[in-house]
Specification:
Elements: E1 25-26, E2 35-38, E3 44-50, H1 58-70, E4 77-82, E5 87-92, E6 94-99, E7 107-112, E8 119-121, H2 127-135, H3 142-145, H4 147-165, H5 172-181, E9 199-206, E10 214-223, E11 229-236, E12 239-248, E13 254-260, E14 266-273, E15 277-283, E16 288-296, E17 302-308, E18 314-322, E19 328-332, E20 336-341, E21 352-357, E22 363-372, E23 375-382, E24 385-394, E25 400-406, E26 412-421
Parallel strand pairs: 2-5, 3-4
Antiparallel strand pairs: 1-6, 3-7, 5-6, 7-8, 9-10, 9-26, 10-11, 11-12, 12-13, 13-14, 14-15, 15-16, 16-17, 17-18, 18-19, 19-20, 20-21, 21-22, 22-23, 23-24, 24-25, 25-26
Length: 422
């Protein structure tokens, strides 16, 4: 899972300096347009846009507030409000663009599952209905349930507080098994290149290959001597935007992650471990609620994950299957099935990932990974069409030195330069 405070996609919108066409959702951007980037692959992004007008926007803004509050503590759902004129770029498995400079469309909502082409809704009365139909989950926020929900939510908060105070004896054997086998983002497969994740790793973004057009974003990751993350910082225009501090127990398991956002507000994710599962409890000034549950099988592999919203509702369930070498071979949720293929028995990372629709089992797209000398190449394809491509140039230790991201027109969209301080 990805932290909501980690600004993976740059969420900054400025006024366009060039004229804009009036296309709705397209595969091609307006040339030389300044972009508002949504870069959350496989996550849900909900973008509410308007032209900063007061008349006729009450329902539109009210529903935006409902979604923003409902998913405030959910790390895999990103809710944005865009009122300036700009081009919005969705960096899914393919690049898609929406031009927010159309006088005929005063307001609307764009839904993206991080994989497919986003969809656009302009009738505020259809926002919730479309969300529920598209993602196959109910929108259970506090307005929808009203007073009847308050008691239920309060009870779930009590249960979460009880879980927060619970104790489970963790030993070295438990910790080693969980770290090595769970195969979740907090405990990924062992890094084959330990030198890539010791000390400080800095990623600077640029807009061109000559590195003249510097982006406003910089990511700094700090690792300990065991290759475990200690700190993750996002810097915007030279100013600290967000920061995650990782605290671990003597067995290297995560105890908590303390987060600070751009306003300086702090929240905390507390990790609670048990015999057959471990949970993440979100703690802030307003709420204490279980946010994520990872269910473990007898081999300490994550067999099922549950994502919970701020009201305690399970909003997403994913099932995982593994091969004899402990690698994920299948990942299934309510809308998609991901099938992973590996080049040989030794490879830790997949060589191909195919994404299917659950509804009709149609192949939506596939991701391909391969190496050429000191290059690692990642491509996303839909049939014969290349949706996006990433080329990583590596140093002698196999660590990424420069990463080039290309769009569906094979044009460079962004470049990341990595530096390592051990």
């Amino acid at each position: 899972m990805k932290s909501k405070s980690n600004l993976i996609g740059a969420v900054l919108c400025v006024f366009l300096l060039t004229a804009c066409s009036k296309k709705i959702l397209t595969d091609n951007p307006e040339p030389d347009a300044t972009l508002y980037e949504i870069n959350h692959k496989e996550d849900v992004s909900l973008v509410f846009f308007d032209h900063n007008q007061d008349d006729g926007l009450e329902k539109h803004l009210n529903i935006y507030q409902r979604f923003a509050e409902a998913f405030d503590t959910i790390q895999d759902v990103h809710v944005f409000h865009v009122s300036e004129d700009c081009v919005i770029e969705f960096r899914n498995y393919g690049y898609y663009y929406f031009n927010n400079h159309d006088d005929k469309i005063k307001s609307g909502m764009i839904l993206s599952n991080g994989v497919d082409k986003p969809i656009l809704v302009t009738n505020a009365d259809k926002y919730i209905e479309t969300y529920e139909s598209y993602f196959k989950v109910p929108f259970n926020d506090k307005v929808y349930y009203g007073k009847l929900r308050k008691a239920e939510i309060a009870e779930r908060q009590k249960e979460s507080e009880k879980e927060l105070k619970s104790k489970f004896k963790v030993d070295q054997n438990y910790a080693d098994n969980l770290i090595q086998n769970s195969n979740v983002s907090y405990y990924p497969k062992t890094n084959a290149f330990l030198s890539c994740s010791t000390g400080k790793v800095t990623a600077k973004a640029f807009r061109d290959s000559a590195k003249n057009a510097k982006s406003f974003m910089q990511i700094e990751t700090l690792y300990d001597k065991n290759g475990l993350i200690k700190q993750y910082s996002t810097i915007i225009n030279g100013v600290l935007y967000s920061e995650d501090l990782y605290y671990r127990n003597p067995y290297h398991l995560i105890d908590s992650i303390v987060r600070r956002n751009e306003k300086g507000e702090k929240s905390k994710d507390v990790f609670k471990y048990g015999k057959k599962q471990f949970s993440i409890i979100s703690v802030d000034q307003k709420n204490v609620m279980i946010a994520k549950v990872f269910h473990l099988n007898g081999k300490f592999q994550c067999a099922k994950s549950e994502t919970v919203n701020g009201s305690g509702d399970v909003v997403a369930i994913t099932f995982f299957e593994y091969d004899e070498f402990g690698r994920i071979v299948k990942e299934v949720n309510a809308t998609r099935k991901l099938v992973y293929e590996y080049k040989n028995d030794q490879e830790v990372f997949y060589s191909k990932m195919k994404i299917y629709s659950i509804k009709d089992n149609v192949l939506l797209s596939e991701n391909i990974r391969y190496s050429e000398g000191n290059k690692d190449i990642f491509m996303s394809k839909e049939g014969n069409k290349i949706l996006s491509k990433t080329v990583s140039l590596n140093n002698s230790n196999g660590c990424a030195k420069t990463v080039y991201n290309y769009n569906s027109d094979n044009k460079l969209s962004e470049l990341y330069e990595y530096s390592y301080e051990n």
